[in-house]
Amino acid sequence: MTFIIREAREEDVLKIQHFISKAGVSLETVPNGWEPYILAEDTMESIVATAALQVIPTNAYLIRSLVVDSEQVSGSFLIKMLETTIQYAREKGAKCVYFIVKQGGDMMESLGFTLLSKEDIPKELKQLNEVKDYLKKGYPVYCLQEVGDK
């Protein structure tokens, strides 16, 4: 099946909210509006994946709301969606892209992400309410820096 990954538009708001709700994610925990979202659609223009980028001071972005319809897309598509989201953040000027996941592992490192220790997590990230909740739960925080910044 063919999928198109693109920036969200204003008319996508309800479709994004419906897709995220259908996946069982509370809308209270995701960014509002359409501006931060990238989405993937099938040929029928049904959303099969979303990702949002939240601006963090110091030229960084946090990947949020990476939601994928696992019945429609494969694990390799998840990687493609993540890579496209990272590229989009880079085009916006990101020096670092953060990603918080329930479980880390080899996939994150294979994409170039580095696991951050609690001490290395920047205060700008720690201060975000949604990030505080993840840190309390012990979720790992990863950072992907520009090649020259490591």
UniProtKB/TrEMBL annotation:
InterPro entries: Acyl_CoA_acyltransferase, GNAT_dom. SUPFAM superfamilies: Acyl-CoA N-acyltransferases (Nat) (SSF55729). It comes from the Bacteria. Residues 3-130 form the N-acetyltransferase domain. One of its GO terms (molecular function) is acyltransferase activity, transferring groups other than amino-acyl groups. This is N-acetyltransferase domain-containing protein.
